[in-house]
């Protein structure tokens, strides 16, 4: 039982990332009808928003400390971050330590602006084009963004630690009555899971309980009728593209302590996230979230040594196997709308 619970917990953080990226993908497909293969790059850009803020907060001034010497006997150079000079050593150190959570504030306007520029500058020209054209142009955009990040930040992963108070692990075993150290789970993975639930809940509440969201949902169901009512649905859908970009970006921001940001992390999640969307059902927001968590947990169980001993390499293909089975038996996905991807 402890092994089962541990695998469920291990699957929740990756499932949270799948669910958040798939949620943004579904928002874009449901509103604009665009298959956005650049969405994984938005996840990556969000992660590098956290990296950028960390670099900004650690910018330092160099002074000479005559009371100290280096290994050559010369006066030592002391680097003092500007934030510590401005706010004092304690508060400045705390701000640097909490750079990842603070990057949420930094990333929201940046990602919305990037999403708006992407939609207005490129994607709007492909609304009426075949999905194959949309895939090619957005995949090309993803490669361009990936290479830009590689040029400015390098090819190596950049460690971006969580705040110090969340760097340990929690003993779930003791809490649930198991032996000590039976179920050890990192604090930040729990934070990421809770954050994803809050973000997902916020998106659904926005769509369900606000006038803007209700108009968007109506436009997703019948765009022409909403337009005939005199509502500028295109403008609202453009804003939703920005919201979807922000969701992917925030997912990337908070994932940085789990997986150090690198220029190809967007591609690593992109294909899997599209599989999640297909399994959940193209156009179904609830299906995307449900499939994200289910496939994350399933992938975690498939990575168990006992399972891999029976079926070697199953952890690498299990999600694709599930997708094949779903597409053969239910082409619309678990909760997809009738007619979508059933032509």
How is the biggest beta sheet arranged? 2 strands, antiparallel
Q: How many domains is the backbone divided into?
A: 1
Number of helices: 15
Average pLDDT taken over every residue: 85
- Poorly predicted spans: none
Shape: globular
Structural class: mainly alpha
What is the CATH architecture descriptor? Answer: Orthogonal Bundle
- CATH topology (level 3) name: ABC transporter involved in vitamin B12 uptake, BtuC
Evaluate the radius of gyration.
23 Å
Strand content: 5-15%
Can you offer a commentary on this structure?
The chain is mainly alpha-helical. It has one domain (2-48, 101-329): ABC transporter involved in vitamin B12 uptake, BtuC. It has helices at 2-32, 39-57, 82-87, 89-97, 99-121, 131-153, 172-175, 187-209, 211-221, 223-228, 233-255, 265-280, 285-302, 305-310, 314-329, and strands at residues 60-69, 75-81, 169-171, 184-186. The strands form two sheets. The chain has a two-stranded antiparallel sheet with strand order 1-2. A two-stranded antiparallel ribbon has the order 3-4. Helix 2 (39-57) packs parallel to helix 6 and helix 2 (39-57) packs across helix 11 (233-255). The protein is globular, with a radius of gyration of 23 Å.
